[in-house]
Fold these 2 entries.
Entry 1:
Amino acid sequence: MKVIILGPPGAGKGTQAQYICDRYSIPQISTGDMLRAAVAAGTDLGRLAKTVMDSGQLVSDDLIISLVKERIAKPDCMNGFLFDGFPRTLAQAEATRAARVTIEAIVEIVLPDEEILKRMTGRRIHPASGRTYHIIFKPPREAGKDDLTGEPLIQRADDREETVLQRLIAYHAQTEVLSKFYGALAAGGSIDAPVIIQVDGAQSIDDVRKAILEGLSRITGHG
Ligand code: ADP
Ligand code: ADP
């Protein structure tokens, strides 16, 4: 199963990605997590990406496309994968098609801008795993600590209000168009067209999860 999870920043992509990946035993390919790991490791890519990420802009298509190509060539991607935060631009979506990567399902989480700020400012992450919490909506068992490892949770540098607003601008200018791009592919009816599963992201985490897994099980034929 090859799946893309689409939606604005803070819509719940990372949260739901983990449920889908557990259900279908596929790796979660989150370009945001990969970039944050590169920043933490202080690699050349990390140094390049850090300034761009902190300003709420997008990292260059060339860098991202080569990062993803390298990742999906790894053996754990043989039976599929989930893209979270990729593609982010038309150029990235077109490069994916040009590389003949056939996507079976697009899960699109829809959420209005007003809700996004609440989500992002309360978000806390466990950097090593990418596990995501929310101080109100999904608190960890012990405040400030990851449920599985007990390690400290952090707030992302780009989850400050000014940066979130910038990221929303980047989303509307460069990423929102992907919904139409994949919609047109699906409507074209070609045999490699993905199925689109649109879900209302304003529901509880559990209800969003149920709606997504139900939509996906209709494609795969098992529930
Ligand atoms: P979000 O929570 O907004 O979905 P991500 O963790 O996916 O955030 O991304 C954080 C930042 O990393 C983005 O604002 C951008 O600077 C960079 N980034 C992640 N994925 C991509 C991508 N596919 N193309 C360009 N930049 C990316
Ligand atoms: P994205 O990957 O799209 O940026 P996340 O999965 O990181 O989004 O979710 C953003 C924040 O909102 C996190 O703190 C997460 O715990 C919380 N969250 C995710 N889904 C929901 C939901 N349905 N209701 C309330 N809070 C949510």
Entry 2:
Amino acid sequence: MLQNICVVLVNVSHPGNIGSVARAMKNMGLTRLVLVEPRAFPHNEANIRASGANDILEKAKIVATLENALVSCNLVFGTSARHRRISWPLLGLRQCGTKVVEEAASGTQIALVFGREDSGLTNKELQQCHYHVHIPSNPKFSSLNLGAAVQVVSCEVRIAWLIAQDQSSKLEKNEVASTKNSELATVDELERFYKHLEQTLVAIKFLKPEKPRYLMARLRCLYGRSSVSRTEINILRGILTETQKVVDSASRKRKD
Ligand code: SAH
């Protein structure tokens, strides 16, 4: 699903930043990098900063314009360090992560677009994006280094992805749990257990029939909220049977 997401860098000046971006992407499980007219690429500085994410650099696509980069994308998120004059659908970072993951999961091709180190994205480029995303940085010092900005956004995507995976595995677990629920003791089995329990409690003189108080009701309440399975009922009844045997043999001995 993360394969449906690409990171687009527009006119990067410093090749080292391309390396940092590749590293940030690989750390977060993203693999597709698209470079719009980079000033210098391939470049040794990029390889050095990628430190282990060179595969992403090798596979990076180089295109001449942002239009070319976005040609097969369905949904485009443009990032900006400043609030621009143009009013555009603006997503919070968290919302962006969730939306990217939701859409990517259903096969939508996503582009996360990042701008130039010195001037960011132009208004025209920002208007090619469906949503704008701003990292909530210090308003008096809002511009992150390009690699850091990609790191933050892709980390947010990863968190949303992990949450989505966790939810689907919980759903699966619930399915397993509901299969287990079918092994829950039936009402009838529970009733027979309560009867057995009551008899045993009387036999060991814990329950006095003339003065029962609410003991059985309380015990019903206890077992009732424990989702007792058939196997557990069998164990409990086994304990009661053994207890009764001990009580019976003790009373026989007393009679002898
Ligand atoms: N001086 C430029 C900032 C360029 S930073 C400007 O004022 O726009 C390079 C790129 O990093 C930006 O184009 C954007 O894609 C990303 N970036 C940096 N800080 C960001 C922030 N706070 N929120 C979103 N993107 C940010």
